[in-house]
Amino acid sequence: MQFKVPQDVQREDTIIGPITIRQLIILGIGGGMAYAIYVGLATSYYMEIWLPPVVIVSGLTLAFAFLKIHEMPFHLFLMNFLEYHLLPRQRIWIQGTGYPFIPPFEEPKKKQETHEEIKKKPVKSIEELTKVLDTHGELSHQEKKEGLKQIISQNYQN
After folding, report:
1. What is the count of structural domains for the chain?
2. What torsion do the CA atoms of 60, 24, 40, 55 make, to the nearest 10 degrees?
3. Which of 16, 49, 117, 152 has a CA that sits 20 to 30 A from residue 4's CA?
């Protein structure tokens, strides 16, 4: 049995014809601004006064909604353009400046034991080691009770 696998999952869903919801919102906001400028200026001024602001706002609205430069939306292209022209092009490295990047999701590395610390650990007898290997590290019920009694007696001595 064959299943349909979605092919272009990164593409935005269209609402009206080829217009997406993002484009529709941009067109609504920009069109409202252009209309507000027209209504505010057309009643008391001639066409030479209200036409340039309406054309500028309408052009920017259409650019933000539909224009793509190098397969990049206009707002991203504009931000990259401004960043390129406003930030310095030559970067200078100075040793010891800045903060190191420490990812928040990594666990801190455990301290490695030195040779002296290994020597200080008590050596277990061969019988204890064979018992642990034979039982796969699991304790019997009686050993668990004895260990629990030892812990209780150590912690709650009056």
Report:
1. 2
2. 30
3. 16
**Angle at 49 (CA atoms; ends 44, 52), nearest 5 degrees:** 140
- Among the listed residues 31, 147, 141, 29, the one whose alpha carbon sits nearest the alpha carbon of residue 39: 31
Q: Position 120: which residue type?
A: K
Which residues form the domain of 151? 124-155
Q: Are residues 80 and 139 in the same domain?
A: no
Number of continuous H segments (helices) and E segments (strands) in the chain: 6, 4
Q: Are the C-beta atoms of residues 64 and 28 closer than 8 Å to each other?
A: no
* Dist CA 29 CA 64 (whole Å): 11
Segment 69-111, tens digit of pLDDT: 999 999 999 999 999 999 888 877 777 777 766 666 766 666 6
139 domain residue, yes or no: yes
Quick: pLDDT tens for 108-140.
Answer: 666 666 666 666 656 566 666 666 667 766 767
pLDDT tens figures, 50-66: 999 999 999 999 999 99
Lookup result for tokens 């991203």: 76
Are 82 and 18 part of one and the same domain?
yes
